[in-house]
């Protein structure tokens, strides 16, 4: 009748055998107990039975139903989901290298600057992942691992919230950022490993040249997807505050090198994207995922998922027990 119904603790249902015993005991006590002792019972016999007299035998049945509902609830009925969950976990190992140079404060994404928009889009990107391990490398004049590869997206989002500009030595060390990211992925066993480089400028710092780092990625067979953030040319850049605390913006030339990012992407088997607005950055990250092959990190079989359905039985048990106690104390109260 219920092909998808199962019990987590079916042994509890053996207690249902006691229900007929309880009903028989209640019937026997009622037959043996005198409800009222009176020398002239024939006087009451002529009056007939009242409505309450017909309801009194129902009380043991209400109690028995409460016991049945409680036992069923304790057995933990569960319904099986029609969908079968694949235990093979598919995922990609992704290291995001995020530029924290002061040029990321440019306001061509106003009312927010480039870094703020990049953090928002990355947070959404992280929230939409399920089985992908993600790491975070930040760089300016030097590169550092901010978060190793992890599946703990909550921690990763908190780390992302804390990062800001003007903490690292200023500059744009693209080569160092790539080398640090590759070091994070070097020992990964995932079939799909990728670096996503998000920057708004040209390489002007660091100890490793971007093309040397690209050659390292090529030898490791790790594609690098580059995303150039910003419009390029003269863009609004904060120059301090006025007397009223408002940010003063001034058009400033910020050099970019799209050819370098294109070269890195083509050498490593990745792709180059240009993001001139928040939507462009979001689409760039999505295109990175769409172009990658999923790898099986954990081999497994298939498993059905179950939903707990004991709640209505438990509520019924409490409701029936309360109803019996209420009737015995009020409308069906029996006076000895």
From TrEMBL:
PROSITE patterns: VWFA (PS50234). Keywords: Cell membrane, Membrane, Transmembrane, Transmembrane helix. The chain crosses the membrane at residues 12-28, 54-75. Residues 93-292 form the VWFA domain. This is Ca-activated chloride channel family protein. It comes from Stigmatella erecta. The lineage of its organism: Bacteria, Pseudomonadati, Myxococcota, Myxococcia, Myxococcales.
């Amino acid at each position: 009748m219920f092909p998808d119904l199962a019990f987590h603790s079916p042994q509890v249902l053996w207690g249902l055998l006691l229900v007929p015993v309880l009903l028989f005991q209640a019937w026997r006590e009622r037959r043996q107990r005198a409800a009222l002792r009176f020398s002239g019972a024939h006087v009451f016999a002529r009056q007939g039975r009242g409505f309450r007299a017909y309801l009194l035998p129902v009380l043991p049945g209400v109690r028995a139903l409460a016991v049945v509902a409680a036992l069923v609830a304790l057995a933990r009925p569960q319904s099986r989901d029609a969908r079968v969950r694949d235990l093979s976990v598919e995922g990609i190992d992704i290291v995001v290298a995020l530029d924290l140079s002061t040029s990321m404060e440019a306001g061509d994404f106003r009312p927010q600057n480039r870094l703020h928009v990049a953090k928002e889009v990355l947070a959404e990107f992280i929230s939409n992942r399920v089985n992908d391990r993600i790491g975070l490398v930040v760089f300016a004049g030097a590169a550092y691992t901010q978060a190793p590869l992890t599946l703990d997206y909550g921690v990763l989002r908190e780390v992302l919230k804390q990062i800001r500009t003007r903490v690292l030595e200023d500059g744009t060390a693209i080569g160092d950022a790539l080398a640090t990211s590759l070091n994070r992925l070097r020992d990964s066993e995932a079939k799909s490993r990728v670096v996503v480089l998000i920057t708004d400028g040209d390489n002007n710092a660091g100890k490793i040249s971007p093309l040397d780092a690209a050659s390292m990625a090529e030898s490791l067979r790790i594609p690098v997807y580059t995303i150039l953030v910003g419009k390029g040319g003269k863009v609004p850049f904060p120059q301090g505050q006025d007397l009223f605390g408002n940010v003063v913006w001034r058009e400033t030339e910020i050099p970019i090198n799209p050819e370098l990012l294109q070269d890195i992407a083509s050498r490593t088997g990745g792709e180059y994207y240009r993001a001139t607005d928040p939507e462009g950055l979001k689409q760039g990250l999505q295109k990175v995922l769409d172009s990658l092959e999923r790898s099986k990190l954990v081999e497994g079989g298939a498993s059905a998922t179950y939903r707990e359905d004991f709640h209505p039985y438990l509520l019924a048990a409490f409701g029936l027990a309360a109803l019996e106690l209420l009737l015995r104390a009020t409308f069906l109260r029996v006076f000895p």
